[in-house]
Description:
The complex is a heterotrimer.
Chain A (H helix, E strand, L loop, with lengths): L21 H10 L2 H18 L1 H4 L37 H37 L1 H16 L2 H12 L3 H28 L2 H8 L4 H37 L11 H8 L7 H29 L6
Helix pairs in contact in A: 1-11, 2-4, 2-11, 4-5, 4-7, 4-9, 5-7, 6-7, 7-9, 9-10, 9-11, 10-11
Chain B lengths: L3 E10 L6 E11 L4 E5 L6 H9 L6 E4 L2 E4 L2 E2 L5 H7 L4 E4 L3 H4 L6 H12 L4 H14 L5 H4 L9 H12 L6 E5 L7 H18 L2 E6 L2 H7 L2 E6 L2 E7 H6 L4 H8 L39 H5 L4 E2 L5 E3 L13
Helix pairs in contact in B: 4-5, 4-7, 5-7, 7-8
Chain C lengths: L1 H27 L5 H6 L6 H10 L6 H13 L13 H36 L4 H14 L3 H15 L22 H8 L4 H36 L2 H8 L4 H39 L4 H10 L3 H29 L1 H6 L1
Helix pairs in contact in C: 1-13, 5-6, 5-9, 5-11, 6-9, 7-9, 7-11, 8-9, 9-11, 10-11, 11-12, 11-13, 12-13
Amino acid sequence: MSDSTNTETLSPEQVGPQPQTPLQEFWSYFSANTGAVVGLVFIVTMIIVALSANWLAPHSPIEQYRDALLMPPAWVEGGSWTYVLGTDDVGRDILSRLMHGARLSLFIGCLVVTLSLGMGILLGLVAGYFQGAVDTAIMRAVDIMLAMPSLLLAIAIVAILGPSLINASMAIAIVSLPHYVRLTRASTIAELSKDYVVSSRVAGASHLRLMFITILPNCLAPLIVQATLGFSNAILDMAALGFLGLGAQPPTPEWGSMLADALQFVQRAWWVVTFPGLVILLTVLAFNLMGDGLRDALDPKLKQ
Amino acid sequence: MALLEVNSLSVEFGDGPNPFRAVDQVSYSVEKGEVVGIVGESGSGKSVSSLSIMGLIEYPGHVKAEGLTFDGQDLLSMPVKKRRALTGADIAMIFQEPMSSLNPCYTVEFQITEALKIHQGGRKKWRRERAIELLEQVGIPDPKSRLKAYPHQLSGGMSQRVMIAMAIACDPKLLIADEPTTALDVTIQAQIVDLLLELQREKNMGLVLITNDLALVAEAADRVIVMYAGQVVETGPAEEIFSTPRHPYTQALLRSLPESSQGKERLEALPGVVPGAFDRPKGCMLAPRCPYASERCQREVPMVSGDSLRQVRCFTPLDLQGKPAA
Amino acid sequence: MFQFIFKKLMLVVPTFIGITLLTFTLIRLIPGDPIEVMAGERGVSPERHAQLRAELGLDQPLLIQYKDYVVNIFHGDLGKSLITKTPVMEEFASLFPATVELATCAALFAVLVGLPAGIIAAVKRGSIFDHSVMTFSLTGYSMPIFWWALLLMLVFSVNLGWTPVSGRLDVTYWIDEVTGFMLIDTLLSGEEGAFASALHHLVLPSIVLGTIPMAVIARMTRSSMLEVLSEDYIRTARSKGMAPLRVIVVHALRNALIPVITVIGLQVGILLSGAILTETIFAWPGIGKWLIESIARRDYPVVQGGIMMVATIIIVVNLIVDILYGVVNPRIRHNK
């Protein structure tokens, strides 16, 4: 990066590389990571499928075709191209259910990440900025939550609130809070001691301005990475809750509950089990790949 | 016969058609009991060249040389095991950052006796006594209790003393000190240099002192090698180098010393920095920064000229008055 | 050293208090009247209602209720199951070994595979092996383990018939429970084939449960090892002329393991929550399955006590890890 300052001392043909805009720089780092780009492409495809599930899906996700129970996928003997990925035990088209499930999963992911990110940033900023007793109280609470396995805590919360999609999302949002709080607090404390914050304070900025306008933008990089990983966690936890029957209730086409419904047909119809799981795995993998790429591109420590 | 003979040593990093040459055809020799100073800015290849002598260059680095002989043995062609038996025993090295060069997980005793254990074996009790002896030699007070100390409990100066103790554990014939004082407090620097020179005289070791501190070299070295961008630009006896530098770079280095700027308002300094991996010029490496550079310097690479005692890599070496020859 | 341990112990106390508060509040957060909810559709007579209220201490002021709750915990009393009427503690104790056995095997699998994979990947950085380790670990990390379990079951149990589908032991064996650990009990029983059968039953669940921890450990070991290998003291070690293997084992590994140990400790939480899913799928009679069934049966004292116990175990394990951390890392031990 120091090249730009001394190009004039080099011979004329030695022109340093053109400085990049932050966005260009980000993209050049991000696109250097093949996995991250693959993840991004997959996610974008998923989003498109989810948004247009109503038109793309060949069938209704909840309509039961009584004449086509447990139909295998089209390429297997006995399958039909009417039901490309086959049907489940009550004759619902698996492909259509998966497409509508994508909508649900991504929506839940968004909801959970927004909720937990928002609350996490608020709590973390307050803890890091004011420190003292407020900090201790918040961080103790966070420690206690971290002492509980997230799935167990989510199960406990759902057990109390009653199984439903919204309750499950709330539970997952609460459970993923600690990571955001910790991250925000740590970077707030690190930024707080820097000169630009001091100068802003000297200039008479209010607490709110300092917290949200001065400090927060500089803490965003790790939070963005964590939010991406939060997506994958939300989808995974949601599927797990759905699988345990504590999330979406039938006949909602949720990936995890699709698996749970299929459990008793494992031996007879492999497709009812294989596809929902594969979609969960690929989606989670895509978010994780993208998260890795974002970390490489955003984390200044890893840049040369 | 010289203790260490380096003939046209190059170290390249990276594969492909255009690897980065960190060290470019460097040749020099070190006699028994001689102190050789290697001077240059950071990035000039001083450390890399000495690491390659120790055999510490790892992938993606490649070491090439026409000859690399130590005590009459060819280091490059000998079997790996034999080479390892030499490193740490007959050739030893101390590093720039003493604090991070010691393993934080082990005690001083473990780390000193480890070198003994690898090369000389012996009983545990003997090794322990030897470690105490070594700590005494490097001037650590109360060596017995220090044996049980962990590196984080030592100061920078202490750590460097422990590093020296480790390096001289097997009575090396050649000690390479890579900027041994740069990371230390000014008051400690002189102590460590004195200690190194004292040990060198006592044991009649060859000592290669790598530094960017000219004053230190002037005081300590018999002979000086000046490096720039991976190349040797000038070699010669210490007094001559300092009284009549023949390479513009050496001259610039000397002029940047506070002592040479007495009565002037500011220190003289060479503009620019050592060229990095991507901006190496075509001709002479110094050409973009050299006040005397001609068109030829931009185009062609100058070769080394002069006798074995005094060598310089320049088309127009400086004369006694410090002006380029016609 | 004692001071160090004492300090760590003191830090655990508020966390523990927090857990008791949490589990205490949990049961009071149930919307509506807890006893009505527990009773479900069956309903409950007014007399029984009052009796239950008194039994659960719900007629007392909140503060007294909490005090009683904590005092009871210290006496090992976590209440009684609404369904089976046995003390929660007793049920927990009888089921816990099964979970420990499963979690231990899973952890062993995770460490024995993840650690060497991570080390070799770091040492052979950029090689095909390195790339495959990274790919596998990222996939493992993203794995919905309940699906992974079904998939392995489908392949190994249903199609190949190599492993049993569920349970801990073939029904043909009857083993006296001594320790509760099937591997040990079958050995003690001396019955032929019983041990092999127990081992057989353990394989799939252990792999399933160990997959995510394995992926995490491999990734962490690799990156930690890479960082350590570029440290100055590794160069020092090599400058002493020791064999590369010694450099890696003696000088790099110990330093690299410091963060890995913390990560392994953190896996206990993952193992225990993973056990909920794994046990449910493989019909493994442990804590996880017990908790899920209790939730389904609205057996709230069991849910409350079970969560309390699991959280406590995780705190204790993390404490042990913290202390171990101090043993491995002299800097921590001396400075803090």
